[in-house]
Please model this.
Amino acid sequence: MKHIKKTITLLGVVLVLFGCSKDDDAPVVVPIPQNIAPQIDNQEFSISESATEGTAIGTLVAADVNEDQLTYTITTNDNDLFAITDAGSLSLATGKTVNYDVAQTHSITVAVSDGTDTASATITINVTNIVDVYAAGYENKGGDDIATFWKNGEAISLTDGSNEAKANSVFVSGDDVYVAGYEVGNSGFEVATLWRNGETIKLTDGNSDARANAVYVSGNDVYVVGYRFISSRIFATLWKNQVQKDIGDIGSSANAVYVSGDDVYIVGYQYGESKSVATLWRNEEEIALTDGVNNAFANDVYISGTDVYIAGIETNLTNGIATLWKNGAATMLTDGNGKTATSVFVSGNDVYVVGSNNFWQNNVLDSLSQISAQFSSVYVFENDVYISGTLYSLTNQKYEASIWKNSEQTVLSGEGNITAVFVK
Model:
């Protein structure tokens, strides 16, 4: 057996010697293939804020030189908002929503692996805004007026129609919808009321008449203004976070409120020696806009930078004159034809005012004023102009609650009125 092993060994040496030529300096080495990590770039996608859970956002793209099968995972998520499949399909996670008003963009980190090496990239998801149009007012369905607000044309009743009720103002903060108005109580008096997401919050006890005319939300603070009667005397009233405070003297009313920084602007009127005086309360300090010779009322206020715009009316001996005050200086928008200015909005360098059946842009009467509508509120959003009000329909022989977007009418209710509009 030992002889056989020696023979085999010797034969192997001979084969090696004869297998190598004189020109070969080393044995031939076959290289082992090297793995190259996949490549993935930062990518961007978009998703609508109206998207529901499971909505597909897009498919990620990566490259691999070795043509290996790639697997995707999210390594850093944003509040677990997003999900991804092994194949790289990105979607809105189960039970999740996105809100443009909360965050316009979301960033996550995604890793892609070929089974050996991994690469990562930042994925940005942009949230696109859906314009929501909110309106407040009332409907009439054959009985008492029903306080109502609308979202994108869909009516939501705030009262059941057993007592008269009207909504005068609407403000939206985040996901919360605030509506101010009144409802007649069981005692027969009007009760100043705030509705938050449809929940009724009574601001007064119903022992005397009171109305909430406007609402404004700043941060965590909710401001409501209006009036209440005390022993048959009317007082301008502020409810901040439901805490009541009279800001005017006897014979006053608050019609609108605007908060800018730490300053609270409230407008209305204060009865003077013999006439009502259009009045601004800045941080509760009373500032008269008129001299008391004629009756005057301030109906709305808007702050743009350091400028204070107020819409209202001042009467002459016979008729009312629609008036716009800018930093206290009055501009007469009409010549005494009995018109009033009920709402003002400033966008960029443009000032929009509505009232009665008139619509002014930069103090110039717009062609929409030719229709016989009653306009109550104006709001500008992304270059679109929204106006609320009511228009008598000759066909239905009723006043139709309506919104005009860039002069195009949309009827929200066959009988009623839109008193305020808010867009976000």
About this structure: The longest helix spans residues 2-19. The longest strand covers residues 118-128.
